[in-house]
Amino acid sequence: MARSKSSAILLAMLLVASVTAGCSRFGGGQSDAPKNLENFTAEEIYKRGEYELENSRKPEDAVFYFSEIERLYPYSEWAKRALIMQAYGYHRAKNYEEARGAAQRFIDTYPGDEDAAYAKYLLALSYYDQIDEVGRDQGLTFQALQSLRSVIEEYPQSEYARSSILKFDLAFDHLAAKEMEIGRYYLKQGHYSAAINRFRVVVEEFQTTTHTPEALMRLVEAYLALGLNDEAQTAGAILGHNFQSSPFYEDAYAQLRGRGLSATPQGNSWLTNVYRQVVQGRWL
């Protein structure tokens, strides 16, 4: 047991010494890097890039080495590996545009490579990680959805598919949240028709998101304000059937009851069609 433990310690010391020796040829960081890297092998430069990723607070230092491999050894196996690491390094640095560029170059150059799935995933993340606020440009959200869908459809068995599905649902929910934000603003300002148009988008196009119950309740509110009781009752009926335990249904029910109305489908409107499809299962 003692000999085995001593052997393990010796091996660890040798590995540390090897890495340290390899990195010592370059100095402490990019600022200390030799101006001419032609004297180093692709593997040495690559390992230095890995070292910078692990130890530097600036991922751009690592990207410098990976990009140099592309320049000095453009057709080597190390250049291929360095390109995907460039994308990763740029993403770590939150330089999303450059991350997309490197990931797309990898996809275009090595479409059949086993790392193509990861490149696609990094491309999607470069959009997804920019949609953290509801008020941001929704074009990024659409781009994220398209890119995540590509990962899911092209690499369904990959380790990145499950993560892409979860992020796709969150991005989809994000779009619905934006529609709700605008709809609530219009409703507060008394612009009921404009508000209804926004809530309708959520009900028709984002039915699977968490915002549908509130959208239906807001429709009840807006239609009652316009005196369109049939539409208000139908919205309440859909809400009651699918989300009866939701506090939004309690609110909608109270609004309808206050007008002497019930949550039952009435008339013939777009909401009636939704009721037939969602509640009755009649699509024709």
From TrEMBL:
List this protein's GO terms for biological process: Gram-negative-bacterium-type cell outer membrane assembly; protein insertion into membrane
What is the gene called?
A: bamD
Q: Supply the InterPro entries for this chain.
A: BamD, BamD-like, TPR-like_helical_dom_sf
Q: How does it sit in the membrane?
A: Lipid-anchor
Q: Where is the Outer membrane lipoprotein BamD-like domain?
A: 41-235
Q: HAMAP family, alphabetically?
A: OM_assembly_BamD
Q: Where in or outside the cell?
A: Cell outer membrane
Q: Which domain of life is it from?
A: Bacteria
Protein name per the record:
Outer membrane protein assembly factor BamD
Assembly, in brief, is:
Part of the Bam complex.
Which interval of the chain is the signal sequence?
1-21
Q: Which cellular component terms (GO) are annotated to the entry?
A: cell outer membrane
The protein's matches in SUPFAM superfamilies, at most eight in alphabetical order, are given as: TPR-like
Coiled-coil ranges from the UniProt annotation: none
What keywords are annotated for this sequence in UniProt? Cell outer membrane, Lipoprotein, Membrane, Palmitate, Signal
Keyword hit for Lipoprotein: yes
Read off the Gene3D superfamilies from this record.
Tetratricopeptide repeat domain (1.25.40.10)
Recorded family membership: Belongs to the BamD family.
**Function as written in the Swiss-Prot or TrEMBL entry:** Part of the outer membrane protein assembly complex, which is involved in assembly and insertion of beta-barrel proteins into the outer membrane.
